[in-house]
Amino acid sequence: MMIDSPIDLDLTINSGQTSQPPWTLTDDCYSNAVMLDGKPTVFKVKQSGDCLDFNLDDEKAVSKVKYIFDLDYDLNKFYKYLDNQPELSEMSGFCKGLRLFLAHDPFECIISSICSANNSIKRWTKSVSDIKRKWGNHHENYCMFPQSNVLAKAYLDDEEEFNSSEIQDIASCENNLKNCGVGYRAPYMRRASEMFTDEIHLSEIFKMSYDEAFETMLEVPGVGPKVADCILLYGFNFREAFPSDVWIKRIVSHLYFDGKDISVAKVREFGMEEFGKNAGYVQLYMFHYARMSGLMKKLKK
Question: What is the CA radius of gyration of the chain?
Fold first, then answer.
């Protein structure tokens, strides 16, 4: 089924958004297993001109894939918004077709975002893929992300696995979080899994105001303001979130504050006030514009 909504599928899926690792690519077709009516369903999408070709025509499946790739969002209207802002006017030309890549499993986004902190895209996506392979349910050639109650019982490291199992050689231990390359984040991930099993219901986050949801996320171990905003933007579709780190700070400082040294907290506040409901998209475009235009290299010096 053709969905007539402009998108650059490669750019969107591989943009490093912490909703999930990139989908599996086979012969120009991206695919993944997505829960639909409580059952895993294989979604396949491919680029067709400027639009998206989807393997299913079921109404609920189409609605779900439109949500994941944010296909109901009016990109042309957003481009006009960018073009009318002198500081942002070049961005649409470098990021044409880039859309939000929203989580089909918000809990996966929470763990992915915690894993992404002080980490490369390549490393955190591999770690999350390893978690899916070790503890997730398998459907055809795909692995679902484990539910929070499953991950809450995962061993932290080789030593804990060795002491709590019948394994005779510690070198054989591999079913633990640190074996997935998450390092110091392992206890954060397990505690987060416990919290979203016993204390916080994912469905309630969608009903909260942004401020309430932000404060709730800050209660989760391993979640600071930047990670909280990533979770809210990519996991729960709070578009006023403006994830801010040292790179966004440098870009905003260059574009709006004549290169002055300003705090990351100030940048986050500025982004939310300046861009409103466009904040999440502006941040996404701002970061990729800096990477693709050469601004990032200039700001490294």
Answer: 20
**What's the maximum distance between 2 C-alpha atoms anywhere in the chain?**
66
Could you write out the DSSP letters of every residue in 16-32? Answer: --TTSPPPEEETTEEEE
What are the per-10-residue average pLDDT scores of the chain (301 residues)? Answer: 95 96 96 96 96 95 98 97 95 95 98 95 96 96 96 85 77 85 96 97 97 98 97 98 96 94 96 97 96 88 66
Quote the CA–CA distance of 136 and 127 in Å, as a whole number: 13
Asked if the structure places residue 33 within a domain, the reply is: yes
* Residue 222 located in a structural domain: no
Annotated active-site positions, please?
226
Per the CB < 8 A criterion, the answer to whether 267 and 246 are in contact is no
The CATH number for 31's domain is 3.30.310.20
Residue 150 lies in a domain: no
Q: Is the pTM of this model over 0.85?
A: yes
